[in-house]
Amino acid sequence: MDRIDQELIALLRQDARRPVTALASLLGISRATVQARIDRLRATGAILGFTLRLPEADGVGRVRAVTMLAVSGEAIDKVARALQRMADVVALYSTNGRWDLIAELDSADLPQFDQALARIRKIDGVVATETSLKLARVGG
Protein backbone atom coordinates (compact mmCIF):
# COMPACT_ATOMS: atom_id res chain seq x y z
CA MET A 1 0.00 0.00 0.00
CA ASP A 2 1.60 3.24 -1.10
CA ARG A 3 1.04 6.87 -0.09
CA ILE A 4 -1.76 7.36 -2.65
CA ASP A 5 -3.62 4.28 -1.35
CA GLN A 6 -3.31 5.64 2.20
CA GLU A 7 -4.60 9.06 1.13
CA LEU A 8 -7.45 7.42 -0.79
CA ILE A 9 -8.46 5.42 2.29
CA ALA A 10 -8.34 8.58 4.43
CA LEU A 11 -10.62 10.38 1.95
CA LEU A 12 -13.03 7.44 1.89
CA ARG A 13 -13.07 7.40 5.69
CA GLN A 14 -14.22 11.02 5.64
CA ASP A 15 -16.91 10.38 3.01
CA ALA A 16 -17.26 6.96 1.37
CA ARG A 17 -19.89 8.38 -1.01
CA ARG A 18 -17.52 10.94 -2.49
CA PRO A 19 -17.60 10.50 -6.28
CA VAL A 20 -14.61 8.83 -7.92
CA THR A 21 -14.09 11.96 -10.04
CA ALA A 22 -13.83 14.08 -6.88
CA LEU A 23 -11.39 11.59 -5.34
CA ALA A 24 -9.30 11.70 -8.52
CA SER A 25 -9.19 15.49 -8.42
CA LEU A 26 -8.17 15.56 -4.76
CA LEU A 27 -5.46 12.94 -5.32
CA GLY A 28 -4.23 14.40 -8.61
CA ILE A 29 -4.70 11.15 -10.54
CA SER A 30 -7.17 9.93 -13.17
CA ARG A 31 -10.67 8.66 -12.40
CA ALA A 32 -9.76 5.27 -13.92
CA THR A 33 -6.71 5.01 -11.64
CA VAL A 34 -8.81 5.78 -8.57
CA GLN A 35 -11.39 3.17 -9.55
CA ALA A 36 -8.66 0.60 -10.20
CA ARG A 37 -7.11 1.31 -6.81
CA ILE A 38 -10.47 1.00 -5.03
CA ASP A 39 -11.12 -2.29 -6.83
CA ARG A 40 -7.66 -3.59 -5.89
CA LEU A 41 -8.01 -2.48 -2.25
CA ARG A 42 -11.35 -4.28 -2.03
CA ALA A 43 -9.96 -7.42 -3.74
CA THR A 44 -7.01 -7.61 -1.35
CA GLY A 45 -9.19 -7.03 1.72
CA ALA A 46 -7.65 -3.65 2.60
CA ILE A 47 -11.19 -2.25 2.19
CA LEU A 48 -13.85 -4.63 3.48
CA GLY A 49 -16.84 -2.52 2.50
CA PHE A 50 -18.57 0.79 2.86
CA THR A 51 -21.01 1.75 5.58
CA LEU A 52 -23.69 4.24 6.47
CA ARG A 53 -23.21 6.72 9.34
CA LEU A 54 -26.34 8.08 10.96
CA PRO A 55 -26.38 11.19 13.16
CA GLU A 56 -27.18 9.14 16.26
CA ALA A 57 -24.28 6.82 15.48
CA ASP A 58 -21.98 9.85 15.38
CA GLY A 59 -23.15 10.73 18.87
CA VAL A 60 -25.20 13.84 18.13
CA GLY A 61 -27.22 14.47 21.29
CA ARG A 62 -25.80 11.38 22.99
CA VAL A 63 -23.29 10.79 25.78
CA ARG A 64 -20.25 8.89 24.58
CA ALA A 65 -17.30 7.87 26.73
CA VAL A 66 -14.49 5.44 27.30
CA THR A 67 -14.16 3.68 30.64
CA MET A 68 -10.92 2.04 31.65
CA LEU A 69 -11.30 -0.82 34.10
CA ALA A 70 -8.94 -2.55 36.49
CA VAL A 71 -10.10 -6.10 37.18
CA SER A 72 -9.13 -8.33 40.10
CA GLY A 73 -7.33 -11.61 39.67
CA GLU A 74 -8.77 -13.91 37.09
CA ALA A 75 -12.17 -12.23 36.86
CA ILE A 76 -11.41 -10.71 33.46
CA ASP A 77 -13.54 -13.16 31.45
CA LYS A 78 -16.50 -12.82 33.81
CA VAL A 79 -16.26 -9.02 33.76
CA ALA A 80 -15.92 -8.97 29.96
CA ARG A 81 -19.05 -11.14 29.57
CA ALA A 82 -21.02 -8.84 31.89
CA LEU A 83 -19.91 -5.77 29.96
CA GLN A 84 -20.76 -7.33 26.59
CA ARG A 85 -24.33 -7.88 27.80
CA MET A 86 -24.79 -4.16 28.51
CA ALA A 87 -26.57 -2.20 25.78
CA ASP A 88 -24.56 0.96 26.52
CA VAL A 89 -21.24 -0.83 25.92
CA VAL A 90 -20.69 -0.62 22.17
CA ALA A 91 -17.11 -1.94 22.10
CA LEU A 92 -14.74 -3.66 24.50
CA TYR A 93 -10.96 -3.85 24.27
CA SER A 94 -8.27 -5.63 26.23
CA THR A 95 -5.24 -3.50 26.96
CA ASN A 96 -1.95 -3.45 28.79
CA GLY A 97 -0.60 -1.23 31.53
CA ARG A 98 -2.58 -0.03 34.51
CA TRP A 99 -5.97 -0.93 33.00
CA ASP A 100 -7.17 -4.40 31.99
CA LEU A 101 -10.15 -3.44 29.81
CA ILE A 102 -11.45 -0.39 27.97
CA ALA A 103 -15.20 -0.14 27.40
CA GLU A 104 -16.61 2.27 24.85
CA LEU A 105 -19.99 3.59 25.99
CA ASP A 106 -22.83 5.23 24.09
CA SER A 107 -25.86 6.36 26.11
CA ALA A 108 -28.96 8.29 25.11
CA ASP A 109 -28.57 10.90 27.86
CA LEU A 110 -26.80 11.68 31.14
CA PRO A 111 -29.18 9.73 33.42
CA GLN A 112 -28.78 6.60 31.26
CA PHE A 113 -25.00 7.13 31.20
CA ASP A 114 -24.94 7.50 34.99
CA GLN A 115 -26.88 4.24 35.37
CA ALA A 116 -24.50 2.44 33.01
CA LEU A 117 -21.49 3.59 35.02
CA ALA A 118 -23.15 2.51 38.25
CA ARG A 119 -23.82 -0.96 36.79
CA ILE A 120 -20.22 -1.25 35.58
CA ARG A 121 -18.81 -0.33 39.00
CA LYS A 122 -21.02 -2.97 40.66
CA ILE A 123 -19.75 -5.84 38.47
CA ASP A 124 -18.01 -8.36 40.70
CA GLY A 125 -14.29 -8.21 39.94
CA VAL A 126 -14.14 -4.54 38.90
CA VAL A 127 -11.75 -2.87 41.35
CA ALA A 128 -11.28 0.56 39.74
CA THR A 129 -12.56 2.61 36.82
CA GLU A 130 -11.68 5.85 35.11
CA THR A 131 -14.04 7.41 32.59
CA SER A 132 -13.46 10.10 30.00
CA LEU A 133 -16.27 11.66 27.99
CA LYS A 134 -15.84 11.95 24.25
CA LEU A 135 -16.50 15.62 23.56
CA ALA A 136 -15.94 16.27 19.86
CA ARG A 137 -14.59 14.24 16.99
CA VAL A 138 -11.32 15.64 15.64
CA GLY A 139 -10.73 15.52 11.90
CA GLY A 140 -12.74 13.55 9.36
Task: Describe the 3D structure.
- The protein is built from 5 helices and 4 strands; from the N terminus they run H-H-H-E-H-E-E-H-E.
- It has 140 residues and is an alpha+beta fold.
- It has 2 domains: 42 residues, Orthogonal Bundle (Arc Repressor Mutant, subunit A); 71 residues, Alpha-Beta Plaits (2-Layer Sandwich).
- The protein has a 4-stranded antiparallel β-sheet, with helices on one face.
- The protein starts with a helix and ends in a 7-residue tail after the last strand.
- The mean pLDDT is 89.
Describe the secondary structure blueprint for this structure.
Blueprint: H1 3-14, H2 20-27, H3 31-44, E1 63-71, H4 76-84, E2 89-94, E3 101-107, H5 110-122, E4 126-133
Antiparallel strand pairs: 1-3, 1-4, 2-3
Helix pairs in contact: 2-3
Beta-strand percent range: 15-25%
Give the class-level CATH name of the largest domain: Alpha Beta
In angstroms, what separates the terminal alpha carbons? 21 Å
The gyration radius over C-alpha positions equals: 20 Å
Structural class: alpha+beta
Number of domains: 2
Largest sheet descriptor: 4 strands, antiparallel
Average pLDDT reading: 89
What is the correct CATH architecture of the largest domain?
Answer: 2-Layer Sandwich
**Portion of residues within helices:** 40-55%
Widest beta sheet: strand line-up: 2-3-1-4
Instruction: Look at the structure and name the CATH superfamily of the largest domain.
Output: Lrp/AsnC effector binding domain/regulation of amino acid metabolism (RAM) domain
In the predicted model, the low-confidence regions spanning at least 5 consecutive residues are none
List the total number of helices: 5
Q: Looking at CATH, which topology of the largest domain would you report? A: Alpha-Beta Plaits
General shape: elongated
Number of strands: 4
